[in-house]
Amino acid sequence: MAHIISNDQNAVMNIISDPNWDLVLRRQPAPFLYAVPSMGIYCRTVCPSPRPRPGNVRYFADAPAAEAAGFRACKRCDPKGTRAALARAVVEDSCAAMAAADTIPSLEALATRAGYSRFHFLRMFRDHTGLTPRTYAEGLRARKLQLALVGGARVIDAINDAGYGSESRVYEDTGKLLGMTPGALRRGGHGETIRSACADSPFGRLLVAATGTGICFIGFGEP
Predict the structure, then answer these.
(1) Which of 13, 21, 45, 215 has the CA that lies 20 to 30 A from 96?
(2) Residues spanned by the domain of 51
(3) Catalytic amino acids?
(4) Is pLDDT above 50 for 146?
């Protein structure tokens, strides 16, 4: 018995075999946006909203093109990047505030300053940096200590200026902070046995150097 396939069925089959639709269906990142005419919205391909019917989609290169066609941005996936841009600005401002602070600000203080709840701010900061605010601030403080010692500052002055409450805290965490004692770093590592290794990375050539105490240097060269 012969089966007759209508034009509508042919159209749907063509859509299903379209690689663009496959990316939408599997929620894979893609350099285009898709719109749902029945809903009047446009989305990223990674949008968590339910998938539309195959014949109920249109594709656009960017947000202005979708909006020119009369579609509005999805509130779930933020295809215009408005929320992402705001979050990035908040995180950058918070990082600058931590860099300027004499002591490490509390999560509560940072969240209040940014106008968010502690939970929301922490999640936003982690999403953009991969770190907690506390870990980021500790890294800034350690870097300040390193630069002061390399610049020849007295050990006690460098420790105090970096915001550490006591010398003992620095010496307890020497391996994590400096990879050698503060005095050894102030002397430029003289007398230390430093081993190094290089490797390729997505950010360029990676160099790591370490003593028997810990890592004392990580740097990237040209890709």
Answers:
(1) 215
(2) 15-73
(3) 43, 47, 74, 77
(4) yes
